[in-house]
Design goal:
With 283 residues, the protein is α/β, with parallel strands linked by helices. The protein has a 7-stranded mixed β-sheet with strand order 3-2-1-4-5-7-6, with helices on both faces. The model has no long low-confidence stretch (mean pLDDT 91). 46% of the residues are buried. 45% of the residues lie in helices and 15% in strands. The chain is globular. The two termini are 30 Å apart.
């Protein structure tokens, strides 16, 4: 999503490296490389080995212009250094989960299917969503669901999760949410469990912590930094970081974030909350 905007704003006007620090299925990487001169190379990072394999297939036509590395974007600086890259012309962080991960990975990212309650982007990471749901206190669960999911019924949902332990599958979590949220409060636009699933996924993968670490590294290593966020809390982190850096020789390219066009949202409803902000290092 926002592929045209990403390609326009982040493709280098000349040679050099681009780092797609959340390469996923390779869609944004493909758009950037297609719009760039042959002297532009791309380093793609991702913690999901299946995503890297799919990105490798998609980006194979670009040959030696592409290097793919299994790494978290929180380790962007180390991964780039290991590849001999000390400066990048532009860097992209896409904080979303791909449609494939939601619908076909079998890791429990979606409430639409009954799957193991996993939610780890990196399958080798320690704690799954089930482990967190079954271990954390009611107060901590409520905090996560409210802070990361902005769910107004967070306390009731946390109480229902604790009462129904152990949870093992996505269906268990959906049932807990359904039992906790009054029917009159169910949204017509969003599934009642959407915010809770989002919150647990962000907690399992420590997405806000990884974002803070990646922002500091990316701004030291690149000329332009683009961040696509889908959650208002993450967008606030990006916006505040960008604004705080303006006196130090950086400028946000546009005062308002780029958002998907209506036709893109109709084609992919998940794109509706996407926001792209781009920060540039001034000459």
């Amino acid at each position: 999503m926002l592929a045209d905007e990403v390609a326009f704003l982040l493709r280098p006007r000349g040679g050099g490296w681009v780092i797609d620090a959340t390469v996923g299925m390779g869609g944004h990487a493909e758009a950037i490389l297609s719009a760039s001169d042959a002297s532009v190379s791309l380093l793609g990072l991702d913690v999901d080995p299946e995503a890297l394999a799919r990105a490798g297939t998609r980006l194979a036509p670009f040959g030696e212009r592409v290097r793919l590395v299994r790494s978290s974007f929180r380790d962007l600086e180390r991964a780039a250094g290991a590849c001999g890259i000390d400066r990048a012309r532009s860097i992209l962080l896409d904080l979303g989960v791909s449609s494939w991960q939601l619908e076909q990975s079998g890791r429990g990212f979606s409430f639409q299917k009954d799957e193991p309650l996993d939610m780890r982007l990196d399958p080798s990471a320690d704690a799954s969503a089930a482990a967190l749901a079954n271990r954390l206190s009611e107060a901590e669960l409520a905090r996560i669901i409210f802070e990361y999911g902005e769910e107004p019924h967070a306390r009731r949902i946390a109480r229902a999760i604790v009462r129904r332990r152990p949870l093992a599958r996505t269906g268990d979590l959906v049932a807990a949410v359904r039992s906790a949220v009054p029917r009159a409060a169910w949204s017509r636009r969003l599934h009642v469990a959407t915010r809770t699933f989002q919150a647990l996924r962000m907690a399992v993968n420590d997405e806000p912590g990884a974002l803070r670490q990646a922002l500091a590294q990316a701004l030291a290593a690149g000329g332009r930094l683009g961040v696509i966020s889908f959650h208002s809390g993450e967008d606030r982190i990006v916006k505040r970081t960008f604004r705080a850096l303006e006196p130090a020789g950086f400028a946000e390219l546009e005062p308002s974030p780029r958002q998907p066009a209506d036709d893109e949202v109709r084609e992919n409803p998940r794109a509706r909350s996407a926001k792209l902000r781009v920060l540039e290092r001034l000459p």
